[in-house]
């Protein structure tokens, strides 16, 4: 009697099946990495917003005591008015707010490569992520008090922003790419695109805004 044996079937993957498996693994890995990245990015955005809000509170407290923001009050009276035209001295505007900001890390965006200053006395422009709107006024709620420094590629300058040729966010500077955060005199913070930046400048009612860039 002849016993017929069935040939064993191959249990291996075909090339197409292997490619499909690898593709699925790549997609799952990308989804996992995205999930891991997103909380950090969200946290950075929130921290940046909180930083600006704290700066806004400090500026308001100063205004209540001195009758204006530091950049509108003479150095003879405890302000920084005389440094207004000196972009390389942008840090001075924040040093005078140190009693209410407390820690230097507040003036550094988590997305920035710049490092916090060890203390307020040793602070320099290189320890700051935010520009100062030196035309901002407590009486003008839509005026821009501060914002992310990627509003320009330049550093240590006073940027003149006219409505006919408004600045645009510069991705190569870093921080938030082609968007940026703005702190307004009424205390709220907005993250806007370049188009939103132009609209924000229009809302200020100021023909030429001057931003002290660190």
Please explain how this structure is put together.
This protein has 214 residues and is of the alpha+beta class. It has one domain (54-213). It is 34% helix and 14% strand. It has four helices and six strands, in the order αααβββββαβ. It has helices at residues 15-66, 91-95, 98-101, 194-204, and strands spanning 130-133, 144-148, 157-162, 180-184, 189-192, 208-213. A six-stranded antiparallel β-sheet has the order 3-6-1-2-4-5, with helices on both faces. The longest helix has 52 residues, at 15-66. It is globular, with a radius of gyration of 26 Å. The protein starts with 14 loop residues before the first helix and ends with a strand. The model is unreliable at 1-8 and 36-40 (pLDDT under 50).
